[in-house]
Amino acid sequence: MSIENTEFRPKIVAFCCNWCSYAGADLAGSSRLVYPADVKIIRVPCSCRVNPMFILRAFEKGADGVIMCGCHPGDCHYSTGNYYARRRMTLLFSMLDFIGVENGRTRVEWVSAAEGVKFSQTMNEFAEKIHSLGKNVRLEDLRCRKN
Amino acid sequence: MQEELIKRAKELLADGTVARVLGWKAGDLPYNPEPSYFENEDQLKNFVYNGFCGANLSKYMIEASKLEGKTLVFLKPCDTYSFNQLIKEHRVDREKAFIIGVGCKGKLSIEKIREQGIKGIESITGAEMTDDAETLTIQTIYGEKTCTYASAMLGRCHVCKGKEHQVYDELIGESKDTKDADRFAEVEKIEAMSPEERFAFFQNELSKCIRCNACRNVCPACSCRKCVFDSTKFDSAQKANVDDFEEKMFHIIRAFHVAGRCTDCGECSRVCPQGIPLHLFNRKFIKDIDKFYGEYQAGEDTDSKAPLTNFTFDDVEPSIVGERG
Amino acid sequence: MQRIGVFVCHCGSNIAATVDVKKVVEMAKLEPGVVHAEDYQYMCSEAGQAKIDAAIKEKGLTGMVVCSCSPRMHETTFRKAAERAGLNPYMVEIANIREHCSWIHKDMEEATKKAVILMRAAVAKVNLNAPLQPGESRVTKRALVIGGGIAGIQTAIDIADAGYEVDIVEKEPSIGGRMSQIDKTFPTLDCSACILTPKMVEASAHEKITLYTYSEVEKVSGFVGDFTVDIRKKARSVDMDKCTGCGVCQEKCPSKKTPSEFNRGLSNRSAIYTPFAQAIPNVPVIDREHCIKFKTGKCGVCSKVCQAGAIDYDQKDEIITQKYGAIVVATGFDMIKLDKYDEYAYNQSPDVITSLELERIMNAAGPTKGHLERMSDHKAPKKMVFVQCVGSRCSDERGKSYCSKICCMYTAKHAMLIRDKYPDVDVTVFYIDVRTPGKNFDEFYRRAVEEYGVHYIKGQVGKVVPQENGQLLVQASDLLDNKQILMEADMVVLAAAIEPNPDVRKIATMLTASIDTNNFLTEAHAKLRPVESPTAGIFLSGVCQGPKDIPETVSQAGAAAVKAIGLLAKDKLMTNPCTAKPDELLCNGCSTCANVCPYGAISYIDKEVNDHGIREVRRIAQVNSALCQGCGACTVACPSGSMDLQGFSNRQILAEVDAICR
C-alpha cells in the first residue's frame, strides 16, 4: 500500500437508508456499476435517522462531501420518514450555505432499491463535484489534518 | 408603570393568589436590572420595571412551575410567545402562572447608547416607562448627554412582533409596536454576499465565541434538562474550543434544535458578552421556514404543528439551496 | 472493552479477486478491541460458520464483524451463527466489502484500502453495540395475492388449501391472465383453456378465497405478519350480486367499436363487456370511457334490457381495507411494444403480427374463430415467416437484454400446429439460437423440424417490406450458408420479448420490494430464496420475478405459497429489537418525538426519577417496542438526545463517521 498520493482523493460519506438506497447500492454492486472508492456508505434504517450532527461531525472530521440517500418521497418504508428528512436537510443545507460552506458539498438524492444505475450515476456525479470543489478547508477540524 | 406593577403584586401576594413574584430587581448599575423572585412586600422594594428590563422571564417559569403555589410573572408582549411555546412543549404549567402582561415600548441596550459615544454613564432618565418620553437624558462623568429612545433600542425591538400579548391573566400598561425595520433585512444582506464573504463574516463573528453558554442559558427554547453538548449521547460533551469548527457546530446545532420553536425573542444576541449577532442563525431558519413551508410564528398558539414535525407531500427538495444561486 | 473477532470472507473470488483479504485481516488486528481476525473462502458456509463458532468460544468474543457481502444477504446467517455460539446476535456487524467494494472497484490497492476502512467503521460500531433481545409481533392469518393469472391462482389455491384465507386482487374484469389468451400449450399441445378454466373455477368456488376483480392495490402499510392494504374496487357499474351473466347487455350494447384487449385489438368489443366467455366472475363491466351513457348521458340500453336490474350507473369505486400476514406478487407480464421496430413493418401491415396475436387467431373463440387467415384480406396464408428474438437478447435500447425464454418453444408449437392443420402452408423460422432446455422440449422442437417439415434458418431478419401485391418481402441472412435471403411471405409472426407488467413498479414501490433494471422483482437470493423478496413477508410468483413458462410458473407459484404458508402458520414473529429508547434523565417530555412517530408508538407518563440525587416527578416519553419499527425519526426530532435508536445509536453512527473520515 504505497500510494504516493499527491492527487486529491476526497472523503465522501454517504448515508443510505436500509430499505431503498442501501439496496440500490447493493444493486449497483451486483450490476458491477462502478463509482469511485472515495464514497463510503453508512447504513441507517431511514433517512430520518440522519441527524444533522452526523453530517457536521463528518465535516469536522475531514469529510469533503456528505450525501444522504433515501427512498423516494411517498415510498418511505416507514411511510413518512423521508418527508421529515427532506425538511431537516433543506434547512441544514441552507444554513451551511448561509455560513459560506459550498452547497455542492452536501446533497440529498432519492434512490430506490431498483435504481442501481441511479445510485452509481449519483455517486459518480457527486464525487466529481467534490473533486472540482477540492479539499474542504472551511469545515474540518484542523486538529485532524495530517500535514 | 413600575408602581402600578408593585401595587398589584402586593395585592396578589396578600390575598394568597400567588406565592411569589417573578420580576426584575435593580442591579448595581442603572442599566442592568436582573430577573428575581420576590416573596414578600419588603423584597418588592427592589422591584424595577424600566426600559432596561429586556430579560425574558418565561424560561424561569420552568423551575417556578415545580414550586408550590402560583407564581406571578410579568411578561412583555414578545415574552408571551416564548411562554406559549413552553406550554406547547409541556415545559411550563399554565396553571402555576399568574401572568401580568406588562406594557412595552421597546427595550434599551446600553451598548447602543455607548455606540453613540456616550461613556461614563452615571444615571439615565427617560427609561422609566412612565411617560411618552422620546428622549433619554443621560448623566455622565462628562456631563449631560441625550439621545432618542429609538436610537438606544435593542435590535430586536426594531423588528417588534407587535404590541399584543399572546397569553395573560391581566394587562397593565400601554404597549407600542416599535417595528421600523424589515425583520429579514440583515439576513438578506448576508445572503447577498458571496460564499467567501459569508464564510469570512461568520468566521470573524464566531471566532469571538468563548463558549460561555450565555446564549444557551438565556434561550427560552433551549430548555433541555441537559444539552446535547453537555451529554455523552453524541460524544459532543463540551470542551475548550480548540478549532474553529466547534463553535460553528455548536451554533448551527443550537439554532437547528430551536428551529421552528424559536420565537425570535432575540435574547441570545442581547446576552452575548462578545456581541455576536447570534439571532441571525435563528432568523435565517425562520426566513427559510416562512419561504419553504409557509409563514409560521412559534409561540403564536399552543397547538399548531411545528415546521420540523410537519411536512407536505410536495415540499421543496434540499437541492433548492443550490438552485437559488 | 469489547473482545471483537473480525472474519473476512473471500466469497470465492468475488471479494478476494479485488480485495487483499489478508491485508484486511492484518489491519483488523490493529483495531481497538479486536482480539481475533481471520479470513476464509466462504464465511457463510458450514465450515466458515464453524470458524466463527470456534473463535467466539475459544477467544470469548463479545462482538464480531464479518467483512463479506451485503448485510441484506447474510446478516441473518451470521447473527444465527453467533447466537448458536452463545453470542447475542445483535453483537454482529457486517462490513459490506462485496456489493459496496470488490464488485465495483477494479484497482486492488484502492479496493483493499476501502475494505479496510469499511472494516474499521464496523469495528468502531460494534465496540459500542449492546446485546438486544427481540420482541414479538402477531401474524394476521390471511394472505393477499396480487394478480389473478395462473401464478396468482395457483398460489391462492395452495395457500387456501392449507386452510388460510386468501384474497386475489386482479385489475382486469376477470381472472385468468395471459394463459387464458393462449390457445395450446407446449410441449403437450393440450388446450390452454381446458386446463386453466377448471383452476379459475376452483379459485372462485374455494371457500377460503375471495376474488377482487377489476380492483387494484392502492396502499400498503405495515410489515411482515401485519400488513394493512387498501384495495380499490373499481366501479363495475354492474351489481355483482344481481347479475346473472346472461350476456344480453353485451349483445344489445350499441357501442361496439372498442378494440378488444383480450383479442389484442384484432376484434372489437362492446362498451359493457366480459373479456371472454369463460370469464370469472361472469359479470360484465362498463368501460366508462367508451360507454355512450357515460359519454353523453343518453343511451341506457343495457339498463333497459337487463332483466335482473343489475346495471348501476352510479356505482362508485370502493376502498376495502384488509389486514394480511403475507403478500404474494403475481403480476405477470406483457409483450413489449413494437413501436420502435419499424423494420418489421408491424405498424404498417396488419399481416405482421405478434405471437400472442397469432394465439388469438388460432383460438376457436378468437377473432377468426380459429381459422388461420390474414387480417388484411382474410385469405388463408400459404407462406409464413416467424422471426425470433424481437426485442429479446437485444443489445440496443429498443429491446431487452435478457432472453424471454418461452419464444423458442411457442414458435415451434405454432409452426407445428400450422403444419398439422394446414399442411400446404410453408413455415420458415428465423432464429439466433434455438433454446430448448426442459423436459421433452428438444424432442418437441426436433419433431417440428423432422416430422412437420418446418424450415429453421439461423439468421436474423433485417427488414420486412409490405409489397403492393399484398405480400410481405422478407430480407434476411442465412448465417450457416452465409448468404442473403429475400423471400415473400403472406404473414410474418414476431416473437416479441416479454416484459414485466408495467404496473409492477408502482406495486413494488408500495411494498418496498426491490426490482431490477428490467422491472423484474428481485429475489432475496437468486439461488436459495428465489420466491421471496428481500422485503420480509413479500413473496414472488410467476413472470414478475423473471421469464418462465407455465410449468415453471406453476411450480414457483406453489413454492411461493409454501413460503407464505410457513409464515402464516406462525402465531408470532420475533420483532426487530432495534427500536427507539428514551433516556429518562435526559427527556424533556416535550412531545416532539411523538409528533413525528408514524406508528403512535410514543406516549408519556408522569414518573418519579432520581436525577443525580434530585427526586422529582417528570413527564417522560415511553416507547411501545411492539409498535416501534425503528425508523429513528424521533431520535433526530429530540433536541436533548434523550431518544436513541438501539442498534443504530447516535454514538454508533458517529463512530462509523469518525472511522471513515479518520
UniProtKB/TrEMBL annotation, chain A:
Residues covered by the F420-non-reducing hydrogenase iron-sulfur subunit D domain: 12-134
Please name the InterPro entries in this protein's record.
Answer: MvhD/FlpD
Keywords (A to Z) from UniProt: Iron, Iron-sulfur, Metal-binding, Oxidoreductase
Domain of life of the organism encoding this protein: Bacteria
Can you say what this protein is called? Answer: Hydrogenase iron-sulfur subunit
- What is the scientific name of the source organism? Hominisplanchenecus faecis
From TrEMBL, chain B:
Q: Write out the entry's keywords from A to Z.
A: Iron, Iron-sulfur, Metal-binding
Q: Which residues form a coiled coil?
A: none
Identify the residues that the record assigns to the 4Fe-4S ferredoxin-type domain, covering every copy.
Answer: 199-230, 253-283
| PROSITE patterns according to UniProt | 4FE4S_FER_1 (PS00198), 4FE4S_FER_2 (PS51379)
Q: Give the Pfam families listed for this entry.
A: Fer4_8 (PF13183)
Source species, domain of life: Bacteria
Q: What is the protein name for this chain?
A: 4Fe-4S dicluster domain-containing protein
Native source organism of the sequence: Hominisplanchenecus faecis
Automatic annotation (TrEMBL), chain C:
Task: Give the stretches traversing the membrane.
Answer: none
An example of a Pfam family matching this protein is: NAD_binding_8
Report if keyword Transit peptide is assigned.
Answer: no
Q: Which branch of life, at top level?
A: Bacteria
Co-factor(s): FAD
Keyword tags: 4Fe-4S, FAD, Flavoprotein, Iron, Iron-sulfur, Metal-binding, Oxidoreductase
Alphabetical list of Gene3D superfamilies matching this protein: 3.30.70.20, FAD/NAD(P)-binding domain
Which residues belong to any copy of the 4Fe-4S ferredoxin-type domain? 234-265, 282-316, 578-607, 619-648
Q: Per its UniProt record, what InterPro entries does this chain match?
A: 4Fe4S_Fe-S-bd, 4Fe4S_Fe_S_CS, FAD/NAD-bd_sf, HdrA-like
Similarity comment: family membership: Belongs to the HdrA family.
Record protein name field: CoB--CoM heterodisulfide reductase iron-sulfur subunit A family protein
- What is the organism field in this record? Hominisplanchenecus faecis
* Phylogenetic classification of the source organism: Bacteria, Bacillati, Bacillota, Clostridia, Lachnospirales
